[in-house]
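Local shape tokens

___
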Amino acid sequence: MEIREVFARNLRRQRQKKKLSQEALAHEAGVDRTYVSALERSVYAASIDTVAKLARVLGIEPADLLNPHSE
């Protein structure tokens, strides 16, 4: 699995775990909802700054979004 797919899977899993909509996550992170959707579908690769913003909102470490063995 490529890192973009790992990130997409972990982002969706963590967002759902926190019971956040894509819109709520995007708003808190200061990005567009369609961008969050595209990230979760592996359409775009997130910048390191975006990874950090999303992780902060989710209350996790940025590395957790990139870990292929994350649950």
